Amino acid sequence: MDLETITEYRPAPGAAWQPGDAWLGGGTWLFSEPQPGLRRLLDLRGFGWAPLTESRGGLEIAATCTIAELARWRPGGPAAVAWATVPLLRQCCDALLASFKVQNMATVGGNICLALPAGAMTSLAAALDGVTTLWSPGGGVREVPVIGFVTGPGTTVLRPGELLRSVTLPDASLRGRTAFRQASLSRLGRSAALVIGRTDGPGLVITVTAATPRPVQFRFAARPSPDEATAALDRAGLDRAGLDGAGLDGAGLDGGHLTWHDDVHGAPAWRAAMTRRFVAEVAAELRE
Amino acid sequence: MIGKPLRRVEDLPLLLGTGRFAADISLPGQAHLRVVRSPVPHGMLRGVDGRKALSMPGVIGVWSAADLDLGPIGFRMVAFPGMLPYRQPVLAAERVRYVGEPVAIVLADDPYRAEDAADLVELDIESLPPVLDQLQEPAQFDDQNDTEALLHEDGYGDVGAAFAAAPHVVELTVTVGRHTGVPLECRGALADYRPGAGTLDFYGAAKVPHQNRLLLAGLLGLPPQLVVLREAHVGGGFGVRGEVYPEDVLVCWASRLLGRPVKWIEDRNEHLLAANHSRDQVHRIRAAVLADGYITAIDDEFWLDQGAYVRTHAAAVPTLTASMLPGPYQIPAYRVRGHVRLTNKTPAGTYRAPGRYEGTFARERLIDAVASSLGKPAMEIRLSNFISPDQMPYARPMSALGTDLEYDSGDYALLVGKAQARFGLAELEHGLAARRALGEAVGMGCAFFVEKSGLGPYEAVRISVDQSGHIDIITGAGSMGQGFETVITQICAQELGVRPETIRVLHGQTDQIEHAMGAFASRLTVMAGSATLIAAQALREKALAAAARMLEASPRDLELSDGAVRVAGDPDTGISLAQISEALRPDQAARWGLEPSLTADGWHTTDHMCYPYGLHIAVVRVDAGTGQVIAERLLVAYDVGRAVNPMLVEGQIVGGAAQGLGGALLEEFRYDDAGHPQCTTFMDYLLPTRAEMPPVDVLITEDAPSPRNPLGVKGAGEGGTTAMGAAIAAAIDAALGVPLGVKELPVHPEAALRLAKAARRESTSEPGGA
């Protein structure tokens, strides 16, 4: 047991947050490595939130909804008939490198708050224009789009004591068609590049995760050609150094402030090349 | 019985869930040990503060190097005196040299408390710059030594003259990355020192219990006779498991200190940090070649990243690389220089086909380079350089693992021909060419290799039959899941004419048999198998002698079959082995002039190894868009001399092929620029799974039995791995149309993409191109 500093465990409802507290979802990451700064675990399951709630406005996914529950879910309400993106939910659940045991415990909220570049729930929620609902210790509530929620590897906009209550996927987003591309070094490995395209009325939304330290999104008023889509990627300011260093296809990048993510699951140059390829592919697939 | 695919006799307890692995063994009153490890790759150790840990409930104590009176861990094979300063201390004293190095231990009454307390031990370490590249000029190791632990030079013939006279010189630099064996079961040890008796029982031994007994007894200052090592079920070895590591010494030391049993079970994170790494060699190799492709000399210089210390294998890996690199080819002149350099990474040791996976990759890439240079098919180059059958036995004036390097038997061209026919290689290549014409990046690559096996100098077996007819075979050799018990059973059952169900194989217990070498170097079927045959023959003779007395017949008229001795031609006269065993009580045996008990010992001794060989063929597809390499088929032809159990030989080859593929495409221990390991879980250390592993077609031949043992067998433990990296590399080249494109393993997708782009550039720059 690595959590030798924990002195108290209690249900989250009614617990006044204090420094040294951690919100406990499924615990699959929290219990997996040392957490030397923690003193109390506040279990979110005490809230008893419904994991998935359909409404005319969309689908609300509780932070405590497990990956397995999301993967199993099928829409039931009248509006849900039009939700064409449902297969994407399963695709993203499968993209999360995890055994069934982990999927039965790990939560959607935990995956997003962990803010890994390859966090598949971040990919999903960002691609569908999800909006997080955050509860602050003082009782306040605020909403933050998922695309801006993750600010870098392991960092989010969460303030001390704030908790992620849920993510809402808007009805309009759920109605779009989607295209999904993912690459990893091994078939069951962590994603090195994950690109999701989604039709948005006459337009297109392309979301890049895993390859970049935080989610990056491109919105097109009209469906772009593959060349137009990759040109947008180039203009977005993604660092071209990785591409040039490897002699891969990187022409047209402007240079800028974002970089390609670098860890053992893929070299930056390869992530960049995969992203460009996938961006072009999803644009082509959804243009039809 | 020999030659039949008998189902594994050792599987029943595993299938029933009643196997007993190291973690399953506990003793009353045991304490639990946790190792405090260095979090930095290199630094001066200024202090160890265990006060916070000591304040935790259940904590028995915290100890560091200053509390120990133990020397460094010794070598068990291929030791050079100059390597002695580089042995690993049991606990780091003044300097830490890799992330994961043991610095202190915590003992507690519960494993979880021990782990928690270990987290509270504070280390004061002054960081130093790490050495991370074996190509870097040697740095300072200590006051007297630099980081080049060994420069191993070997060879024969006039290399200089050969290169001076050669019309073609082909050279290249190749690299094999750092990876290792990762058994399903991590390491574990339980030591039980009895203060009154002065005995030490060690549970969790594997691979080489008898050798480890000597090492541990020497370190602890105990008489070897009072130290008993006990092997339980072992969940895989692959060369990594079973060596003496610091943790093994520490549980013994702590048990003696406390006078109670002490247990340590390794977790996966520790295993990837602390157990032996392997491979990690850079070769600069060149060949002197005649116009017809005959290679007159090879000159190789290589650099091995040994990690932070030289462990029990000492120079086994670099000397195996050096001696086995010429492989199946004649090579009239050869020179090799191997630099064993220390860095601030986990120490390296042997892993399935140690030194040969790397050397075979270098040599077979060189063969491909020669072929490319001369515009000839690579197989033609191989065939024209093979040692021919009439040159057998073929001696090179070198040694391998302390034995003269003399290939015992082999017909390499015959194996190539059989593989071509069995696998339909011409048709296969035709089909791949058609796919390439349609735009697919598919290709086939081949690599040939010679393995070594059956390392001596001895192995012993004792067979005894009890009064019920049950047979025990006792051997000190270890079983790590490879099917050893089945093979031994088959050999004994055939010689004694008994059912396998009546046989039990007892192994890896140092108090049951005095001498043993152990399970490594693909030696068990050769060595313990031969010893079993010899022991069974002796027991058979004894049974016939006793039965002759009982039946008042001449032993020459008797035959042993179906567990009974009969007068030839008179099936009604049978007396069972059980009856013979009962009759051989001491008084009656003395009257008959026989030793009591139906028991016999068998020894097999040898000064030479035997040398199986094989051809690896890989068919791969490269996704031109992602660079990902998909192995579509792996084909292995392997001559094992004689297959005691072809099913088990095939299993060994398929498993070995998976590990060869892992090293070629996925597995790699990476470090960041500061020397911190990046692959310490299975999330980050990428093993091949069923998803990456294609079917493996195996052709086992028995065309070249070994003349060096009574069974004619050769080892099969490593032949699935040896040349797989080279074959996959050649297949990728073929798929992309880039001769000698792959020079580094593992082949990451970005490297394949780069090659694909180079190929496109090449094709468009040719005359007539776009």
Number of domains of chain A: 3
- Report helical residue fraction of chain B: 25-40%
Largest interface: A-B, 27 and 29 residues
Structural category of chain B is: alpha+beta
- Structural class category of chain A: alpha+beta
Number of strands of chain B: 29
In CATH terms, the superfamily of the largest domain in chain B is Aldehyde oxidase/xanthine dehydrogenase, molybdopterin binding domain
* CATH topology call of the largest domain in chain A: Uridine Diphospho-n-acetylenolpyruvylglucosamine Reductase, domain 3
Task: Supply database-style keywords.
heterodimer; A: Uridine Diphospho-n-acetylenolpyruvylglucosamine Reductase, domain 3; Enolase-like, domain 1; 3 domains; 5-stranded antiparallel sheet; 4-stranded antiparallel sheet; 10 helices; B: 770 residues; alpha+beta; Aldehyde Oxidoreductase, domain 3; Aldehyde Oxidoreductase, domain 4; 7-stranded mixed sheet; 29% helix
Care to give the gist of this entry?
Chain A contains ten helices and 14 strands. Helix content of chain A is 28%, strand content 25%.
Topology at a glance:
The complex is a heterodimer of chains A (288) and B (770).
Chain A: E1 8-11, E2 21-24, E3 40-43, E4 52-55, E5 58-62, H1 67-72, H2 86-95, H3 100-105, H4 108-114, H5 120-127, E6 131-135, E7 141-145, H6 146-149, E8 150-152, E9 155-156, E10 163-170, H7 171-174, E11 178-184, E12 191-200, E13 203-209, E14 216-220, H8 226-235, H9 241-246, H10 268-287
Parallel strand pairs in A: 1-3, 2-3
Antiparallel strand pairs in A: 4-5, 5-10, 6-7, 6-10, 8-9, 11-12, 12-13, 13-14
Chain B: H1 12-15, E1 31-37, E2 43-49, H2 51-54, E3 59-64, E4 95-96, E5 102-108, H3 111-120, E6 122-127, E7 148-156, H4 159-165, E8 168-179, E9 188-194, E10 199-205, H5 209-220, E11 227-231, H6 246-258, E12 262-265, H7 268-274, E13 278-289, E14 295-307, H8 316-324, E15 333-342, H9 356-374, H10 378-385, E16 394-400, E17 403-407, H11 412-423, H12 425-437, E18 442-450, E19 458-465, E20 471-475, H13 484-496, E21 503-507, H14 524-551, E22 558-561, E23 564-567, E24 570-576, H15 577-583, H16 586-592, E25 598-605, E26 613-622, E27 629-639, H17 646-665, E28 696-701, H18 724-736, E29 744-745, H19 749-765
Parallel strand pairs in B: 1-12, 8-29, 10-11, 14-15, 20-21, 27-28
Antiparallel strand pairs in B: 1-5, 2-4, 2-6, 3-5, 7-15, 8-13, 9-10, 9-12, 13-14, 16-17, 18-26, 19-20, 19-25, 22-23, 23-24, 26-27
Helix pairs in contact in B: 8-9, 9-10, 9-18, 13-14, 14-15, 17-18
